[in-house]
Amino acid sequence: MVFDCFAPGGADMAWMAAGAVALLAGWCAARGACAPVAACWVACLAPLRAAPPKAESPKLARRPRRRPGRTERFRRGLSCLCALLCAAALASYASSSRRLRPALVKTSTAKAERAACACASVGCLRRALGAGRRGALSGRGGAVFKPPHFWLGGCQKCGTTSLYDLLARHPQIVAPTPKEPGFFAYPSVARTWYDAWYARDVLRLPELCGRGLAHSATFDATAYYLQWGGPVARALKAAAPWARAVVIFREPVARAISWLQHMALKFPTVPNCLHYRPLDCCVAKKWFLQGGHHLGGSRYHAHLSSWLDNGWALDEFHVVRFEDLFERDGLATLYAGILAFLDLDVAPARNLSKAESKPSNRRSVAPYNVSAANYDAMVAAVADDTARLEALLGRDFGWTRTWGAQRAQCARDGICRVSLIPPKARRR
């Protein structure tokens, strides 16, 4: 049978139950939800209590009690598991519902801010600040930025770290820690366990409230949310319906190669194709041409359409181009556009220093040698998606001209020297 791998005896079950009770008691005590947990525990385990023993003859009483069979032990273990799951669900609900009732009443902005600062979870913030789409709550007391005010992303190696470092210096922004918590990519059950951590440590709610929600905003900078599509889009929209999105897109072929290089350099002990073979061999593999983190991750239209099909509107996105980071005065213009979209003060964009205008996290700028056939295969894998993206957004990203210039270089030299960043950046 499938259960032969683990068939605990009575002592094992007792220790398991005692440990589970102790762990659950400490957890629910920290969350202030002991009453519903205890009620659920008693209700679920009531059928397992042994019935009063029947009257037995002295001869039968001396016989040892028969050990429960495998099916009975499995039934008991399953009942305990159900009790734990039920208790965890109730405790999570009680935690997210705590201190919500005052915030459900329509009141002034100041009272809504006080209710939000008393919260200990994302669900509480949503109810305290309202479920509207606007990023700021206006009223008699002014306006407050609802945390998280926006999401910064796109795909890995699109320049989100550079934008994060830039936004973190803005006087109105409290930068999240860590940069990429990945909270909304967790399964819904896991999010209930990390809900308080996300509100307290990632969104830094105590610091936000100390500075005042009218003067400070925070965000989530998990780059790969867009690639995960519908589940993440629905989770983020349900938790923060007011949040906006700032996404940055990079030339698809360079982004995919940069991701492969990034993994090889950052994790030298993890198996990577670049550790054993030249790049030209790696980019010809099916996993590179179709994989979700490589060229599959560069199909921006497919990712964006998935979000639009799951509750997001196109006007909630502000799309920027990675290559604009390297143009003269391009970063200042790009930064000012982001701040205006987020209703933040645009003055810091006019006074960027030379150090602030340099992109972050550049590990290599040397071109890679790729055969013309493999380069054409990479372009063919993303060309249609790029055309649909440009039609959707009504703008020209210039990547088609980049591919044409690269093909001309391939024909001239007999080998494609693929640059991961624009030539202007290599001269800086």
Name some characteristics of this structure.
single chain, 428 residues, alpha/beta, Rossmann fold, 2 domains, 4-stranded parallel beta sheet, two-stranded antiparallel sheet, globular, disordered N terminus
SSE map:
Blueprint (H helix, E strand, L loop, with lengths): L9 H22 L2 H12 L12 H4 L8 H28 L3 H4 L4 H9 L4 H8 L6 E4 L2 E4 L4 E4 L6 H9 L19 H15 L2 H7 L7 E2 L4 H4 L1 H10 L4 E6 L2 H15 L6 H4 L2 H4 L3 H5 L9 H9 L8 E5 L8 H12 L26 E3 L1 H22 L5 H15 L2 E3 L4 H4 L2
Parallel strand pairs: 3-4, 3-5, 5-6
Antiparallel strand pairs: 1-2, 7-8
Helix pairs in contact: 1-4, 2-4, 4-9, 6-7, 19-20
Descriptive overview:
- With 428 residues, this protein is of the alpha/beta class.
- The chain folds into 2 domains: 59 residues; 257 residues, Rossmann fold (3-Layer(aba) Sandwich), CATH 3.40.50.300.
- Helices cover 52% and strands 7% of the residues.
- The protein has 21 helices and 8 strands.
- The strands form 3 sheets. Strands 4-3-5-6 form a 4-stranded parallel beta sheet, covered by helices on one side. A two-stranded antiparallel sheet has the order 1-2. Strands 7-8 form a two-stranded antiparallel sheet.
- β1 and β2 form a beta hairpin.
- α2 packs antiparallel against α4.
- It starts with 9 loop residues before the first helix and ends with a helix.
